């Protein structure tokens, strides 16, 4: 009798411990489709808005919580739009110069992208308003311009995944 009571109590405990687990996404129940709207670039980096738009779309597709639709179709339940006020580069890695042990040279840099955004409904009702930043490291190589661009892309993707996570799980 005690053995049956112990086993049934243990089974009840196992079943209750899984009661709060949810399979699937945790997105807002009224948002099924998302689009990326206008992004205003106030920084000195040309085409940064296009990079951020591309990375936001990529992050939405990879997350899978929401369906990505074109902004002009009018099918979106929510639209991500915002402003890129700034970006920056800073030195993060140094190594000794081969010729002189007292001198150091920069080997690695970090790009930081700041994005102030809001998530609005098609009727322009603001759902969320946040500022996110993303960082992307790159090294000093043959083409510093190409490496800078890759650093900006990494920083933009880092920021975009944070935006999508906030949208999907911030409720």
UniProtKB/TrEMBL annotation:
Signal peptide positions (record): 1-19
Alphabetical list of InterPro entries matching this protein: LPS_assembly_LptE
Q: Name one GO biological process term.
A: Gram-negative-bacterium-type cell outer membrane assembly
**PROSITE patterns membership:** PROKAR_LIPOPROTEIN (PS51257)
Pfam families, per database record: LptE (PF04390)
Domain of life per record: Bacteria
Protein keywords? Signal
Give a GO cellular-component term. outer membrane
Q: What is this protein called?
A: Lipoprotein
